[in-house]
Design the sequence.
């Protein structure tokens, strides 16, 4: 009651000038730059949307235009539910599912492996823990592209071509996640593990009961980064998946624009729409985890 | 409940630093022992060895009838309260208190009963479903205490539990902890660097310095008969006045005054007199030059010098005092004497 009174009083005594924010020249410039940047980034996406409303013939005939067609429904149906290629298995929904499996499996795998590696390095008195960490860290210098041939050969010899395991497992060892979790675990107060030891929590219990819940925000942050990273993988899926029912979206789209069978026109509408669909899930993941993401990277709730 | 026996407990770090020199003492059943000393004196290390958080390099540790040297902290039947409380931030107060019991596979009903009991004792009933971050420092400290008492341990360990609290709360919690310990009758070891805490809470004080135990005794013993110049200057605020003097034939000569002590020491000694044992007395034989007067309400502290020796004198509120020359008398029975070289009590 007293609070509302005080608030009412504050409003009535405040002068109108103070309630309206004053706009400074600097603000205008800042916003102009931001708006220009946003438009620059959005323009290709808007073009994609515009083109996906047109019939394919129109796209070839007129090139870029501002015309909005009526074929969005049609293109969407084609993109999501009609198969392309020979086997008739890589529909949009199928590719979307494959992309989700890759993105989620990739992100979760990286988080689990990274957390466990960091746990071992930070909390156990290993003889060469620091050395082990730096060895893991230097693998950042050897991205997939550098070791793609041996990696491919291993996966092939293990008979994991065209499988989800083959798609995910070779990618989940992650120096980045290990590094981030290591830094995070090092900031967890020593007393917490000591209190847990006195409370009778062994290493596994401490990890699951205390460290994992404490790392929630960190896990969310890693999940965003890794999901988007996994979702956007192109080279590795191209190598590993040759059967069309294993194609991911990012890999499948290229196949569609390429498929100049006979003298048919490339299916621009379909490819463009799939490209848009491919952008949507990462956007939602980021929006959903955004507040956690910021928390995970800045705040410490200890 | 149990007695705790340390027999030559020693800690040497891999770099060769001897953090705790062989320590031998026994804490009686139900006793409240306080380990006190400046930072880096090894008191926390010793406590952590008792807890099982540090390995014991040498010696034997008995809690009750068991040797616990090689037992895990959880199996030693102890509970520990940490300086920063070490509460699990993602758990509610209730879960924090119950976590240890849960890990011991205590039946649900018994956990609920014990948590309710502890929260009643500690006035936490209204906060059982809050997270630690929603609590004040004093409440967090109580939760940490609750976590300790639900386990019914045979030994409580406190690692500077009050140093994160403000002065007023600290005084209050000091009394609460002491009262709780009395009520539960659990043997306790309490580590602090604050000599006031040590004096007020302890049944017995263990003063440590540089990894060595300087003295073990009741607060009164430690205060009135310090075993070394270190203890004399560490315990008591203000500390004991220490002055170089000469001893000859059972007398000690200081600033022209001869005092009888009857001990067969010859040569230079360090003379120790508590500030309250120096009495303002117009007919007193010691010439004292008062430089600064600290008014503390209940009493006053006069800082000045006898000859070249800086000296502090404790004066009651009824005694008139002003800066400038004054005279002091001293009761020879209250003197402490220390070896000038080793600093040990004579």
Sequence:
């Amino acid at each position: 009651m007293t609070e509302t009174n005080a608030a009412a009083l504050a409003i009535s005594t405040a002068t109108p000038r103070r309630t309206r924010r004053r706009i400074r020249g600097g603000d205008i410039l800042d916003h102009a730059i931001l708006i220009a940047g946003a438009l620059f980034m959005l323009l290709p996406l808007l073009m994609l949307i515009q083109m996906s409303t047109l019939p394919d013939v129109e796209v070839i005939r007129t090139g870029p235009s501002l015309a909005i067609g009526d074929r969005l429904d049609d293109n969407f149906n084609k993109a999501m539910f009609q198969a392309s290629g020979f086997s008739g298995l890589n529909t949009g929904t199928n590719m979307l599912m494959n992309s989700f499996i890759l993105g989620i499996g990739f992100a979760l795998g990286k988080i689990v492996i990274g957390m466990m590696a960091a746990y071992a390095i930070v909390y156990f008195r290993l003889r060469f823990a620091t050395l082990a960490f730096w060895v893991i860290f230097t693998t950042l210098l050897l991205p997939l592209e550098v070791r793609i041939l041996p990696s491919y050969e291993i996966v092939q010899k293990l008979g994991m071509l065209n499988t989800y395991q083959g798609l995910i497992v070779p990618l989940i060892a992650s120096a980045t996640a290990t590094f981030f979790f290591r830094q995070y675990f090092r900031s967890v107060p020593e007393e917490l593990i000591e209190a847990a030891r006195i409370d009778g929590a062994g290493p596994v219990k401490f990890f699951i009961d205390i460290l994992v819940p404490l790392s929630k925000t960190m896990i969310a942050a890693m999940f965003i980064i890794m999901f988007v990273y996994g979702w956007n993988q192109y080279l590795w899926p191209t190598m590993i998946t040759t059967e069309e029912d294993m194609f991911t979206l990012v890999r499948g789209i290229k196949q569609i624009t390429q498929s100049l069978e006979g003298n048919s026109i490339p299916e621009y509408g379909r490819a463009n729409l799939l490209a848009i669909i491919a952008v949507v899930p990462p956007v939602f993941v980021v929006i959903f985890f955004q507040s956690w993401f910021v928390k995970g990277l800045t705040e410490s709730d200890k | 409940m149990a007695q705790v026996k340390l027999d030559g407990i020693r800690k040497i770090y891999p770099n060769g630093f001897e953090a705790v020199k062989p320590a031998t003492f026994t804490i009686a059943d139900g006793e409240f022992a306080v380990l006190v000393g400046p930072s880096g004196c090894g008191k926390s290390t010793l406590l952590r060895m008792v807890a099982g958080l540090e390995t014991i390099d040498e010696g034997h540790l008995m809690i009750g009838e068991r040797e616990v040297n090689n037992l895990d902290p959880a199996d030693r039947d102890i509970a520990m309260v940490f300086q920063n409380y070490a509460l699990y931030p993602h758990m509610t107060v209730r879960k924090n208190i119950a976590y240890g019991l849960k890990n011991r596979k205590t039946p649900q009903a018994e956990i609920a009963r014990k948590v309710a009991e502890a929260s009643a004792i500690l006035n936490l009933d209204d906060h059982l479903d809050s997270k630690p971050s929603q609590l004040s420092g004093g409440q967090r400290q109580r939760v940490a205490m609750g976590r300790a008492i639900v386990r019914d341990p045979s030994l409580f360990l406190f690692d500077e539990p009050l140093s994160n609290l403000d002065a007023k709360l600290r005084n209050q919690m000091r009394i609460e902890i002491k009262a709780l310990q009395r009520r539960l009758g659990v043997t306790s070891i309490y580590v602090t660097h604050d000599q006031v805490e040590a004096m007020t809470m302890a049944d017995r004080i263990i003063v440590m310095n540089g990894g060595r135990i300087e003295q073990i005794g009741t607060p009164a013993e430690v205060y009135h008969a310090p075993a070394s110049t270190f203890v004399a200057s560490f315990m008591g605020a203000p500390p004991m006045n220490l002055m170089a003097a000469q001893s000859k034939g059972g007398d000690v000569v200081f600033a022209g005054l001869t005092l009888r002590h009857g001990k067969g020491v010859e040569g230079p000694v360090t003379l120790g007199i508590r500030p309250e044992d120096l009495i303002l007395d117009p007919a007193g034989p010691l010439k004292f030059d008062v430089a600064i007067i600290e008014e503390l309400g209940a009493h006053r502290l006069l800082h000045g010098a006898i000859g070249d020796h800086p000296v502090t004198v404790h004066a009651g509120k009824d005694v008139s005092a002003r800066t400038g020359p004054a005279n002091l008398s001293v009761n020879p029975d209250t003197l402490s004497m220390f070896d000038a070289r080793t600093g040990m009590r004579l």
